[in-house]
Amino acid sequence: MARQTVVLGAGIVGVSIAWQLQQRGHQVTLIDRHQPGRETSFGNAGIIQREAVRPYAFPRDMKTIMSVLPNKRVDIRYRPAGMINAASPLLSYWHNSSSRLYKKIVPEYASLIELCLKTHEPMIEAANADHLVRREGWLEIYRTPKKLAQRVKEAEEARDHYGVQFAVLDREGLAEKEPDLGSDIIGAIHWLDPWTVADPGALVAAYADSFTQLGGRVLQTDIKGVQQQGKRWQVDTAAECLEVDEVVVALGPWAGSWLKGLGYHFPTFVKRGYHMHYTTQPSAKLHYWLMDAEIGYLLAPMNAGVRLTTGAELDRLESPADEKQLADAEKVARSVFPLGERREASAWKGARPCLPDMKPVIGPAPKHSGLWLAFGHGHQGFTLGPATGQLLADMMEGKPTEIDMAPFRADRF
């Protein structure tokens, strides 16, 4: 008889886990209060970032820290209440960003990133979603030769250690790819490996449709509670009660608070972010995904228009939106590319689920049999969803995993 599994959370991580398990013969129900891909997975930059072998570290140099304090940077904003609320995990994040600890974290994190393209590929094919995907890389643009040279050095290290491919573009070479860029931009790194997605939410929805075609079930309802009943689990929802063999928690930024009810206290925090879509000025066209690396925002030619995504905002998960960071990013972006009008009345707001050692939790819950965890992917949930699905499915079936999963175990905290 097929094992009965409930996956909580229909972002790209939860959908990918459900897809993998259903494909392997499990009987899977995927539960979320919203349709698949409508929360955190909806509002990201839409890049499957094969080049992102180094996670985002907390600034350690005093110059950068002092520049953040006035709270006017585009790439990072904070609210005092949010900083106080997350003081302990943020202090641990700062500690783990020391050169000694970060040096150990990078290869562990990179082992996940290296799986991203080959785990997305079969899901894209099964979902008939190739029309959403471009395999042309993306551009990281620079304003100063010094910053570009520093980044090229990092790119060379990523190439030598992790096989990352890139090309360096001067102003002339960049202008051939993006002729409408402003004069402040002097060059770029063209990351060649990554794939870009013209509608990230639609890709997650396509993966979910593929899951249901395999026989899986999507239940859109509120989760009321989960409790262990002997060797099985009872999942109570607003719609019905389910009794199953296993439960997977893939609730993204809500995982930490939700798991407290089962006796777990993970040091989770969030980096919030915003996006807005724009028209372009007549005759202007954006061809590639662009990150203004020295300022800290991204422009992407999505199906819905040119999407501007902000950097990080450190605040509590459910605090009201503050669109000033977006407005400041927009002001700079208009000097780089001829944006037109806003296409929405208000910005989309979401939150990246983070852990202080920059690595997700993927694996069994230490206190309960039949409970599995997959959350804390930070900036790279969209990139790492399918890899997480494959690895966790292997673990749940007692099969060897392609990489060492010890760095991602839940009991490391």
Q: Cα distance, first to last residue?
A: 36 Å
In CATH, what is the homologous superfamily of the domain at 1-57 and 97-131 and 196-267 and 357-413?
A: FAD/NAD(P)-binding domain
Helix content: 25-40%
Assign the CATH architecture of the domain at 1-57 and 97-131 and 196-267 and 357-413: 3-Layer(bba) Sandwich
Structural category is alpha/beta
Task: State the name of the first-level CATH class of the domain at 1-57 and 97-131 and 196-267 and 357-413.
Answer: Alpha Beta
Radius of gyration: 21 Å
> Would you count the extended β strands for me?
23
Give the overall silhouette: globular
Walk me through what this model shows.
This protein is of the alpha/beta class and 413 residues long. The chain has a domain at 1-57 and 97-131 and 196-267 and 357-413: 3-Layer(bba) Sandwich (FAD/NAD(P)-binding domain). Helix content is 32%, strand content 27%. The protein is built from twelve helices and 23 strands. Strands 6, 7, 8, 15, 16, 17, 18, 20 and 21 form a nine-stranded mixed β-sheet that branches. The chain has a six-stranded mixed β-sheet with strand order 10-2-1-14-23-22, covered by helices on one side. 46% of the residues are buried. The model has no long low-confidence stretch (mean pLDDT 97).
